[in-house]
Amino acid sequence: MTNTPAPRLALARWDIYCRVIDNFGDIGVCWRLCQDLASRGHSVRLVTDDASALAWMRTPGGQPVEVLVWSASEAAPLPGPAADVVVEAFGCDPPAAHVAAWRQASIPPVWLNLEYLSAEPYVERSHGLPSPQCSGPGEGLSKWFFYPGFTERTGGLLREPDVQQRQQRFDARHWWGQMGVPWHAALRTVSLFCYPQAPLPALLAALPAWSEGAPVLLLCTASVNAMLLEEALQSQGLAQRIQVQRLPWLSQADYDHLLWACDLNLVRGEDSLVRAQWAGRPFLWQLYAQDDGAHGPKLDAFLSLHLAGAEGSAWAPLLRQAMQQWNGLALGSRALALPEGAAWQAHALAWRERLSQQPDLCTQLLAFAQQKAQHGAGGTAPA
């Protein structure tokens, strides 16, 4: 992997705004961005309405980031020097008092709206477009849409400059021991991070064939109901072939370690999907289900990119079907249609290499903000 060096702002102060909706993905993405920016020498503040997940999500010894409570800072501008760049994560609508302060500043900050990750065509069309503020506290300012993505015409994916080097140095056997996991070389290991509606019986039924008869160790993240898994194993007569181990809440670094150490990763939402791709291991992605079914076209768009050039193979249709079944979007047999392991693993590495050719999101974000700052694109303060 290569990361293109990005120009730094002369005054590199960043404020990241994040509202936590109902899961950990929003703040997970924002925290990784904060850490990446801080590691490159920038001063970063995170303004969030719920910082509770950071108690376990933070990596000990990580970069210094100031965390501010949203409700305690709504009525007045943030204390201290004004930011050069503000990032509104996922359209979270920063407090009016803060926006008004940006408008009154002699040099308004560059205002970016970091959007959700998708492979759908609108992302390339919308990435980098301005949204002039014609009314409200930010009247006269411009907000810029910044879309993560999987192609060169998007903002890329979060990827720290040293992630590949850290993975190469990673000792899985030592980490399993630290986590108290009874690992041995004959086991096939699977990590499970999913939403409650995931078809767990279909996954369990598929694992013995996928592992080619080897015993399976299924490692459940703390949000997964391990008791339901155990009951499903008993009902299917698989308790002797699949062992379930519940994990504690993991820091972001240890979650990366889990993905690196496993043979197959089941991930959900946005942050864990990105980390699974950098792990270079086979994965199944469960999207956040939308009431209007929008997650269906979103999955199809991703699979069209992910499987481009491989549709003539024997394994690619199986992976497409498995992803659709895992998301409740296709009727199929009781067991998921998992591809053969070696071909799937080779594709995961090839996909990672393809993504690695693109500049990472933080590098692109820095360059984009620098360009807008040089052209005074934050807006013009009133006379």
TrEMBL record:
Keyword Glycosyltransferase: yes
Taxonomy, superkingdom: Bacteria
Keyword Glycosyltransferase (UniProt): yes
GO molecular function, one term: translation elongation factor activity
Catalytic activity: dTDP-beta-L-rhamnose + L-arginyl-[protein] = N(omega)-(alpha-L-rhamnosyl)-L-arginyl-[protein] + dTDP + H(+)
Coiled coil ranges: none
UniProt xrefs under NCBIfam families: efp_Arg_rhamno (TIGR03837)
Summary of the function given for this chain in its UniProt record: Protein-arginine rhamnosyltransferase that catalyzes the transfer of a single rhamnose to elongation factor P (EF-P) on 'Lys-32', a modification required for EF-P-dependent rescue of polyproline stalled ribosomes.
UniProt family annotation: Belongs to the glycosyltransferase 104 family.
Protein name from the UniProt record: Protein-arginine rhamnosyltransferase
Gene name as annotated: earP
